[in-house]
Design goal:
With 423 residues, the chain is of the alpha+beta class. The protein is 52% helix and 19% strand. The chain contains 16 helices and 10 strands. The structure holds 3-hydroxy-3-methylglutaryl-coenzyme A. The site of 3-hydroxy-3-methylglutaryl-coenzyme A has 27 residues, from helix 4, helix 10, helix 13 and helix 14.
Length: 423
């Protein structure tokens, strides 16, 4: 039996202690988790403008997650009930079949300078390409520190789209997400590109469509591990493959399919202090790369196995932005065992695939409401005004009701309190 079995039934302190024991993170990180303080004004007030205070969200963990032969615990920040439970459930099943495997072919971030009013776009395109070396060198001069650390500008590409001549710059940003590095370099080459093209630069900006930072996660699940009945297991696997096919051909389903994937991805990306809007924007662009918006993951049957696969552009960082500022993010990296940007990117894609597996398994078997509402019931009880002691009782009663909604939760709470008064 797993060391983490029944993890969710422990109290918060017990979970932190077990996690620290298993993942060997520092006492300082354990204290950050135990004390659970908000960001101090001295930090929060400098991160954004017109600061009023801080805004909390639940901080949770998927205790065991197997990627490339190594076990991790995944910190997650999400407001939605059942996401963490579902990912934990999926990770357990997939872990028994050898876990996830990842592949990254390259990791370059892309930015663009868009030029307009170019008198002869084709001649300008050729002139710019002929000056590739001097453009790369100018870009590197604009941000020498990344070059010193081993990164820097690597390629340019030029394209004519409608009335625009667009120059794309690819940069190795090492462990950073690269927004500042790219933007500085692009602004550094803008004037030279205007001179070469005889046109005007409309803008110089990083692209969140990180198509040269593709990360693939795969898993191979033994169909026998999907449940206790061989016949039902095969049926479930077949239906998961069908659900994946549905998300390829129907945009309505693709959007929801991908939302389920982002339940896990965003929760981990937010916990690591990364820019989740950048990750989401890039992935949705990738989902529509052939002109139709499609499901990002695919599930297929191969003999006695269900094969899952997902590739995403992943502009992710382990340094920079708010990462060094937020003590909880530091604790998150400690729990994760300080992965480099490539490993973190792999973990994020695998988390999305895992979350997707759990949602599809639920959808094609019991339906989503059984598991989701079981966990939503507690939130509804609290929303109805129940205190911590009352919440468990109300949640249990709610699950037996026909309508698991706020109105019913309020009625049950009123009945419970009436009974207590009478007693
Ligand atoms: P279950 O069969 O009742 O779970 O499923 P179980 O009690 O047998 O427990 C199995 C394991 O699940 C546990 O292992 C835990 O790892 C985990 P154990 O520790 O016992 O060895 N687990 C929990 N972890 C933390 N807290 C809990 C908890 N309960 C179980 N309270 C479960 C219950 C929720 C896992 C299942 O029904 C499920 O996976 N449902 C899917 C829920 C889901 O996907 N929610 C996301 C929100 S819905 C949505 O937004 C997306 C969607 O629209 C996307 C789409 O359409 O594709 C669905």
């Amino acid at each position: 039996m797993s060391r983490f079995s029944g993890f969710y039934k422990k109290n918060r302190q017990e979970r932190i202690a077990l996690l620290q024991q298993e993942r060997s993170f520092s006492q300082e990180s354990a204290e950050i988790l135990i004390q659970d303080k908000n960001l101090p004004e001295s930090i929060a007030g400098k991160m954004t403008e017109n600061h009023l205070g801080t805004f909390s969200l639940p901080f949770s963990v998927v205790p065991e997650f197997l990627l490339d032969g190594q076990e991790y615990s995944l910190p997650m920040v999400t407001e939605e009930p059942s996401v963490v439970a579902a990912c934990s459930f999926g990770a357990k099943i997939i872990g028994r079949s050898g876990g996830f495997h990842s592949e990254i072919l390259e990791r370059l971030m892309i930015g663009q300078v868009a030029l307009y009013d170019v008198p002869d776009p084709q001649a300008a395109l050729e002139k710019i390409l002929a000056e590739t070396e001097s453009i790369l060198s100018l870009a590197n001069q604009a941000h020498p520190s990344i070059v010193k650390r081993g990164g820097g500008a690597r390629q340019i590409q030029v394209d004519i789209k409608d009335q625009f001549l667009i120059v794309y710059l690819s940069v190795d940003v090492l462990e950073a997400m690269g927004a500042n590095i790219l933007n500085t370099m692009l602004e550094g080459i803008k004037d030279y590109l205007e001179e070469l093209s005889q046109g005007q630069a409309l803008m110089a900006i990083l692209s969140n469509y990180a198509s040269q930072s593709l990360v693939t996660a795969r898993c191979r699940i033994a169909i026998s591990s999907l449940g206790t009945s061989a016949a039902l297991n095969r049926e479930t696997a077949k239906k998961i493959a069908l659900a994946s096919q549905l998300a390829q051909v129907d945009t309505y389903r693709a959007a929801t399919h991908n939302k389920g994937i982002f339940n896990g991805i965003d929760a981990l990306v937010v916990a690591t202090g990364n820019d989740w809007r950048a990750v989401d924007a890039g992935a949705h662009a990738y989902a529509a790369r052939d002109g139709q918006y499609r499901g990002l993951s695919t599930w297929t049957l191969e003999g006695d196995y269900l094969l899952g696969q997902m590739t995403l552009p992943l502009p992710i960082a382990t340094v920079g932005g708010s990462i060094g500022l937020n003590p909880k993010v530091q604790a998150v990296f400690d729990i994760l065992g300080h992965p480099d940007a490539r490993t973190l990117a792999s973990l994020i894609v695998a988390t999305g695939l895992c979350q997707n597996f759990a949602a599809l398994r639920a959808l094609v078997t019991t339906g989503i409401q059984a598991g989701h509402m079981k966990l939503q019931a507690k939130s509804l009880a609290i929303l109805a005004g129940a205190n911590e002691e009352e919440a468990d009782t109300i949640a249990q009663q709610l699950r037996k009701e026909k309508h698991t909604n706020l109105e019913t939760a309020k009625q049950l709470l009123a009945q419970l309190r009436d009974k207590e008064k009478e007693a």
